[in-house]
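User: My notes are a mess, but here's the protein and pyridoxal-5'-phosphate's SMILES. Can you give me a structure?
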Amino acid sequence: MIFENTRAFASQLDEQDTLKHFRDKFYIPIINGSESIYFTGNSLGLQPKTTQDYVLNELEDWASFGVEGHFHARQPWFSYHEMFPQLLTKIVGALPEEIVVMNQLTVNLHLLMASFYQPTKERFKIICEAKAFPSDQYAFESQAKFHGLNPDDVIIEVQPRAGKHVILTEDILTTIKQHANETALVVFSGVNYYNGQVFDMKAITAAAHDAGAFCGFDLAHAAGNIPLQLHNWDVDFACWCSYKYLNSGPGGVAGAYINQKHAANKSLKRLAGWWGHHKESRFMMEKGFNPIPTAEGWQLSNAPVLSMAAHKASLDIFEEAGFENLVTKGQQLSNYLFFIIEEINKSVENKIIEIITPNNAKGCQVSMLMMEKGKEVFDTLKHNGILADWREPNVIRIAPVPLYNTFEDVWKFGEIVKLIVKKR
Ligand SMILES: *Cc1c(COP(=O)(O)O)cnc(C)c1O
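Assistant: No problem, the inputs look usable. Here's the predicted complex:
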């Protein structure tokens, strides 16, 4: 599509957008008396207007039934979590028995590493991306120490080449090959949180398996953003949070994927709890852990129903909108944002923004490295009701999301940035 940098063009795209009415299903934060332009759905997705009712239902059932709600609530809490795999199959590209909704993201990463990071004398390396999200870095570091190893001996970070921001797939695959005999685990994010790069999960998984290692992904910035095929790519495990693109509320319940071939393997090592135990005999309260032969076998605790109610409210909206439609619109929005940023650069003598997100491997997020005036641009955006995200030392992350952002949002953003940068 040939884009134009005019309000008329942007609003025409909005008119033609078959998903445009979904915006009305969300509360849009108000700044200075009017609706903000919310570009931080990659950080905390907005609240669906239906969420309160879903949560209220559970509060009412708790009030009415007390403990009996486990079996007599409208949606009994005993099996509450069982609604989710079906709703997430399309979003993560996995079989229902490979998916479980539980805990929070970093907790799940640790639980999965307990199963899939089993270092030996020969194989103990973890290969990951440079600049992984800090929580992931701390998880890798502490897992190494937990096994009595020195993180400096264990962790291999694949870097972008000098002066570049994107990590080449070629370099990832070569690194895995170089360390084939000593690698226990390859873990990457699906989408890097900082530059928005989508990793080639299929190729990385195949390379890890060729090397005889397990392969897992942290999908915090990928779930609900880009199409995923975890099962077909033969990924071993993955985890994600629900409060970014999945709009399920701050600190909301997270998700995990365990490939069927491992999920059914009862002898795979794991940290266990009663909710992972065989359902029929769970309440016999007997000795001897007998895991459910699906991803549910990694559950520890009974379901956090209030948080799950918020998750359900949001996933019902994804179901209604159709995930493929959301992906298509998300790509159009980020393509338009690329175009608008180039228009900003054209309007000034010296290029002021370097886009560090690869155009051919991106989701909704576009990261702008500001050559100058970064903080000023960021503050002025906020002053004008545009919420973006600032990352030291000089990166602004912008994520127009398909459920509630518009093409006109993107156009307006460009106009405001132009006003600031032209003043220099
Ligand atoms: C957002 C994010 C986290 C946050 O972890 P929580 O356990 O949900 O606090 C971790 N890792 C990545 C890659 C993230 O993007």
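The domain at 7-35+322-421 is CATH 3.90.1150.10 (Aspartate Aminotransferase, domain 1).
User: Great, I'll file this with my notes.
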